[in-house]
Specification:
mainly alpha, two-stranded antiparallel ribbon, 62% helix
């Protein structure tokens, strides 16, 4: 649910109207989550991707000076490219080319990445000019509130209380209410606002101004090819790693051991990117946070259908979400790492030609703050090391194609 507020906060810095992006975010999340549940029958929510929205704003628009309407056109064409790759089963072939040990490593790496995001959102881990990162002061009321919320949520999860994650978010929100009112000050971590929990109203009218505002012809310039490729490549590997990671962590496989309903899920993801450009937001993608719902027992497409429908009222109720601070969702994100780290035991750590690529993929996802970078170096190191030890037969043909995409991404 945080994406309804966070995505407009990022994209509005590109010059797009905040209210228009709220509407686009809600509509995209609704339609594509519904498609994921009804068509692909997977319990995975689809919404504008974090990282992709940052690339849209800070790299494409601000960095390259591209008009936001042109950038929306680039999103659309990236989606068209996705659809072609999906229809001709290229994306499915790429998924099948990922060696099993790397799938386990990607799942674990994503889990650690989500945990890191949770600690960062709580400002429990902060930047340091000396050691790069460090822990915050335990005397800070914000940190104390986070730790109490984390331990309460962990206790509920350990006791297998139904809806433990949601209860944890609600309890942490309640615990955060006094900050800035009765004790402490959140100004340093909440954009100058002393309180963490603030009532900002209940209703707001939807803004449909961004629908159809994309510049299709202006985005077809040769100079924008790298932007379209970057959107397509990043979304490609984000979605693949999400489907693979969730499947390995939750056991949602088909008879061949592949992520269940993969072709339909990839097609849904492609539609999400294409539709995003039309509605007025950055590319849509399958959300790795879906692992939270799956860990609570969600196993069918009904989960995505219900979650998608729950987005729709926030066309009018988006101010209500701002009551819940990122501090309250941080314990949930931290605990997801517990659920997703389990496949690490399935990696043969004594087999170094497999262990080293898996280790690189696993650690570089959180360390580089990028799922894409982690899997790029996992794929490339797998190929190089297998060649070095004379095991060329253990490099799938499709992996060579993936390696070309990886190198192109690093060099362009």
């Amino acid at each position: 649910m945080y994406i309804i507020v966070v995505n407009p906060a990022i994209l509005s810095q590109s010059g797009l109207p905040f209210s228009g992006v709220v509407t686009a975010t809600v509509l995209l999340s609704f339609f594509c989550s519904l498609m994921m549940g009804l068509y692909a029958r997977n319990p995975i929510v689809v919404a504008p991707g974090m990282g992709l929205n940052a690339f849209f704003t800070f790299s494409a628009v601000k960095g390259m000076g591209i008009a936001p309407e042109v950038a929306l056109g680039a999103v659309f064409w990236a989606g068209v490219l996705f659809l072609l790759l999906t229809v001709f089963n290229v994306r499915t072939a790429l998924v099948h080319a990922i060696p099993k040990p790397l799938r386990y490593a990607i799942s674990v790496g994503i889990g650690l990445f989500i945990t890191l995001i949770g600690f960062e959102n709580a400002h429990f881990i902060i930047a340091s000019p000396v050691t790069l990162v460090q822990m915050a002061s335990f005397r800070d009321p914000v940190i104390i509130t986070f730790l109490v919320g984390l331990l309460l949520t962990a206790a509920l999860v350990a006791r297998r209380v139904p809806g433990a994650i949601i209860l944890g978010i609600a309890l942490t929100t309640a615990l955060a209410w006094p900050i800035g009112r009765w004790w402490g000050d959140a100004s340093a971590v909440n954009f100058g606002q002393a309180t963490l929990v603030s009532w900002k109203g209940l209703f707001s009218a939807p803004d449909f101004s961004l629908i159809g505002k994309l510049n299709l012809l202006g985005s077809l310039k040769w100079s924008l090819g790298p932007v379209i490729f970057a959107f397509a490549f990043t979304d490609l590997f984000d979605s693949i790693s999400t489907f693979v990671g969730v499947a390995e962590a939750s056991g949602l496989h088909d008879e061949q051991g592949e992520p269940q309903h993969l072709n339909r899920s990839l097609l849904t993801d492609a539609v999400a990117t294409t539709l995003a450009g039309v509605l007025g937001t950055s590319p849509g993608t399958a959300y790795i946070e879906s692992a939270v719902g799956i860990s609570q027992g969600g196993r069918t497409g009904l989960v995505a259908i219900v979650a998608g429908c729950l987005f729709l009222p926030f066309l009018f109720l988006s101010p209500l979400l701002s009551v819940i601070p990122s501090l309250a969702t941080a314990p949930a994100l931290v605990l997801v790492g517990t659920f997703m780290i389990q496949p690490v035991t399935r990696i043969r750590w004594t087999n170094l030609d497999e262990a080293i690529p898996c280790f690189l993929a696993l650690v570089l996802i959180p360390f580089s703050y990028s799922i894409t970078q982690g899997i790029i170096w996992g794929f490339l190191s797998w190929t190089v090391i297998k060649l070095a030890v004379g095991k060329r037969e253990e490099i799938p043909v499709g992996l060579w194609v993936v390696d070309v995409f990886c190198l192109a991404s690093l060099l362009l």
